[in-house]
Design a protein that fits this description.
This protein is mainly beta. It has 7 helices and 54 strands.
């Protein structure tokens, strides 16, 4: 506390000294002002070198600036300035772990009841909190675990690991007050943590739980097409989402053309979804970040689970390699649709002259191994491989017939290794090396085609075509968490990515032979390779400015070099929270994001032919600016939130009017235009995470449109984005009837998507105005659209119901039956819509023909945990 007596003349100070003893500065101030400093020499002796600059500034302001960075306090009484040392603070640090498996717990909350200070464990379970000396009551909690109180008599820096017990089998625990992880207290808006159990308990299409389909039910997100795992966030496109698996980007996130995502729910440990207020460590996409972390494995005991659903089966196994020091976790998933089609094809081919061959399957493997060298040092290796395989072919029994094969294989390979080290009780470091590869390979073969002018001159023909595209990243990353005191949590670091883009690689081998000539030719159609270098550095500070005001201020610098072109960007990230009442807060944030790669696609369904291409000299990087504000309130264990946002997108890429929408690399720059976009809206949500009844109710009101000022798209007029769904309602509920029966439901309503319909028919003599084609046309030699996204589909809504039945066995095993019914009331939501042209009495009309994927789909899955 500072007490100043009023005087007729305010003393001022002029100083310009560098690296001098603090005592010299105090003596000079005393000489200039006549004020007298009182202190013990031992208090200031440790400050041997201090710099200070002041030019005719008030004495009180100089004292404030001089002592702010020093562990000293002062008080002005009359003509005296009394200087004392601050009570020394001590740091408690360590890891929060599962008591049974010894796995680290991400985003566990720690809260000192006496001082009111709290913190959250990082992505590796490490925490650090600085507290005053004396008695400490540290309350530790994590979703799904029994809270724990740790009592410490703090007299020095202390490192302690804290273990929590799972609360799966214990009674309900009622917690009063606000937790440090509560949305009311956090400084970031637009951030959602998805518990693993919420993903696995919701009704599952085809019996397969999926993290992306859970995200689709949050406010501000749109799923795109019926049944797909597409994700469109706050008016953005599908390629504007950054999917991370243990810190490595995932470029193709789907199986079965989008019905399943690439994320096996058995392998997932935690998922954090950012749709705004992006941490400075993330970059490279415009709309969202989905950070998925996989399980480390149990360090105490061996256990696992087996699960079989309507179209796929899963297995998971984990346990210690060296007990209490090292563990592994392996998950495997495979579809078994090919096992169904195989006996059917065998029956069809039994007496047929032409044998039909075909199958489709997918699989993915997740594996992770970790090892602790000491309490301060741990290393891990993470691995993922997923692949889809499709075959269609025919074999002819006729020697003069043709054999045909079409084989399509696509998938991801991701691996990384990292090392975590606690440098000291305030500084945590992570170093990692990663490799990501996505590739799509198509083989088309036709052989054994034999023709003969006569028996003496047979002719054979063979043709084999190969087409592929690929994307590879090699990365180096370093990040640091530093907590200098209780008021600041600083994160900084950087990364480097070496990109290899192979948008297209195709060639064909042809072999011709007759009785005289044998000739083989090889034709290369394309063989593209582009290398890119991306480097970034980031810094952010989570600051507790006052008891009411908390802020996060950071920035990310990126550099992208490709084909002799270099782009640079500084991306500020700012968010702040102000506590209006004990359980009511207001938040604001601003984020800028840059994106240096584009996805070329010719369909609304995610296909392996979609290719990633980098920015060029002509096509610069996309960027977005987003501002968000909101109110957050907690009452009776229910969190309420209201957010408004405005997002501006620049340098967006879309195919030009009358251009060929082909996912082809050749000449792609000439076929696209550059434009702008905007999205704005409001999101309301009420969420309950505990109790027998849990879930959320959310409403989204949003607008999203595009504008290409150069006239390349929609003749320069604004048009709605494809997934501009004005209204969206999500209702998700889970009710626990008992420890053995759990009921789930999920209902969604959304305004219809926008599509482009060729609603104009014309002949060659008809001209076109700036806005549309003239009049009614009766001789349609051609078709055109009056505008981009000129038709809106009917509203989409669907109710899914499910039930989970648990059976607990004597030795700890659990059997789980999941019964789900998707689209209970059989709403005919269209999967795709196509125009059909017809004429009546010489007049031409167009109607829309809808393709319905499913009206009602029941499914059953069984899981056995041991």
């Amino acid at each position: 506390m500072i007490t100043l007596e009023r005087t007729d003349l305010v003393p001022t100070v002029t100083l310009n000294v560098r690296q001098v003893p603090l005592q010299d500065i105090l003596e000079e101030m005393q000489r200039q002002t006549g004020m007298i400093f009182s202190y013990e020499s031992s208090v200031i002796d440790e400050f041997k070198r201090v710099s200070f600059i002041a030019h005719d500034e008030s004495f009180a302001y100089c004292l404030k600036r001089l002592f702010a960075p020093l562990p000293l306090t002062y008080r002005i009484i009359g003509q005296y300035v009394i200087v004392k040392g601050k009570p020394r603070m001590f740091t408690v640090s360590g890891f929060v772990r599962d008591s049974a498996s010894y796995e680290s717990l991400i985003s566990a909350t720690l809260f000192d009841r006496l001082s009111g200070r709290g913190t959250i464990s990082n992505n590796y379970g490490f925490y650090s909190i600085t507290l005053p000396p004396g008695k400490v009551v540290l309350r530790v909690s994590f979703v799904g675990y029994e809270p724990k109180a740790v009592y410490i008599n703090l007299a020095k820096d202390t490192m302690i690991d804290i273990s929590l017990r799972s609360s799966t089998r214990i009674g309900e625990i009622i917690v009063t007050g606000l937790e440090p992880h509560s949305e009311v207290l956090s400084s970031r808006p637009g951030v959602v943590n998805i518990p693993k159990n919420k993903v696995t308990t919701l009704p599952a299409l085809l019996g397969e739980a999926d993290i992306v389909k859970t995200l689709q039910r949050l406010p501000g997100t749109t799923m795109g097409t019926e049944g797909m795992t597409g994700l469109y966030v706050r008016g953005g496109d599908a390629d504007e989402n950054l999917y991370l698996l243990d810190g490595n980007p995932v470029y193709h996130t789907n199986h079965v053309l989008g019905f399943f995502s690439a994320f096996n729910p058995d392998a997932i440990k935690s998922t954090t979804f950012y749709k705004e207020s992006f941490p400075a460590e993330y970059g490279g996409r415009l709309s969202s970040v989905i950070d998925v972390r996989t399980d480390d494995g149990d360090r105490k005991e061996y256990h696992g689970n087996l699960s079989i659903g309507f179209l796929a089966a899963r297995a998971n196994f984990e346990g210690p390699i060296i007990k209490d020091r090292s563990s592994f976790n392996v998950s495997f998933r495979r579809s078994w649709m090919d096992l169904i089609t195989w006996p059917v094809l065998m029956s069809l081919n039994k007496d047929a002259d032409r044998k039909i061959h075909g199958y489709y399957n997918f699989y993915d493997i997740n594996a992770k191994v970790n090892y602790s060298f000491s309490d301060r040092s741990m290393a891990y290796v993470s691995f993922y491989m997923g692949s889809d395989n499709y075959l269609d072919g025919e074999d002819s029994e006729d020697p003069y017939g043709a054999d045909r094969i079409f084989r399509w294989i696509w998938g991801n390979l991701i691996t990384s290794t990292g090392w975590n080290y606690v440098l000291n009780n305030k500084l945590f470091a992570t170093f990692s090396i990663g490799y990501t590869r996505y590739r799509s390979n198509i083989l088309q073969k036709e052989d054994a085609y034999v023709s003969a002018i006569d028996e003496k001159h047979p002719q054979s023909y063979f043709q084999e075509g190969h087409s592929s595209s690929a994307m590879q990243d090699m990365s180096l990353r370093a990040s640091f968490d530093y907590r200098p005191n209780a008021m600041h949590l600083i994160r900084f670091g950087g990364d480097y990515l070496f990109h290899n883009f192979r948008p297209e690689q195709s060639y064909m081998d042809t072999w011709y032979k007759d009785s005289v000539v044998s000739q083989k030719t090889n034709t290369v159609f394309s063989n593209s390779l582009i290398r890119g270098h991306e480097a970034s550095a980031f810094f952010e500070d989570e600051m507790r400015l006052t008891d009411h005001l908390r802020a996060n201020i950071g920035a990310r610098y990126t550099l992208f070099h490709v084909q002799k072109e270099t782009y640079q960007s500084i991306q500020p990230r700012i968010s702040a929270r102000y506590m209006i009442l004990r359980n009511l807060s207001a938040k604001v944030s601003y984020s800028k994001m840059n994106q240096y790669i584009h996805l070329l696609s010719n369909s609304y369904v995610s296909q392996p032919t979609d290719i990633w291409v980098p920015v060029t000299e002509r096509i610069g990087p996309m960027n977005s600016h987003q501002i968000t504000g909101g109110l957050y309130y907690r009452l009776e264990r229910i969190d309420y939130s209201a957010e408004v946002y405005y997002k501006r997108l620049n340098n967006l890429v879309d195919y030009k009017d009358n251009g060929l929408a082909l996912s082809s690399f050749s000449g792609w720059e000439d076929r696209v235009g550059l434009g702008r976009g905007r999205a704005y809206g409001m999101e309301l949500m009420a969420k309950k995470n505990s109790g027998r009844l849990s879930g959320w109710l959310a409403y989204t009101l949003s607008w999203s449109d595009r504008w290409f000022p150069d006239g390349s798209v929609n003749k320069g007029r604004r048009f709605p984005a494809k997934y501009d769904n004005r209204h969206k309602i999500d209702m998700v509920a889970t009710y626990k009837l008992s420890s053995k029966v759990e009921l789930t439901s999920a209902w969604m309503y959304a305004s219809g998507n926008h599509i482009t319909i060729m609603d104009q028919m014309y002949n060659a003599a008809v001209s076109q105005s700036d806005n549309s084609y003239y009049g009614s046309i009766y001789n349609p030699y051609g078709y055109s659209a009056s505008s981009r996204n000129n038709y809106q589909l009917p509203p989409y809504h669907r109710l899914d119901l499910g039930a989970n039945f648990y059976k607990y066995r004597k030795k700890g095993q659990i059997s789980i039956w999941n019964v789900s019914v998707c689209n209970v009331y059989m709403r005919p939501n269209p999967f795709m819509v196509s125009p059909v042209y017809y004429s009546i009495n010489g007049k031409r009309y167009v109607r829309l023909q809808e393709t319905i994927l499913f009206r009602c789909f029941p499914s059953v899955s069984y899981t056995y945990k041991f």
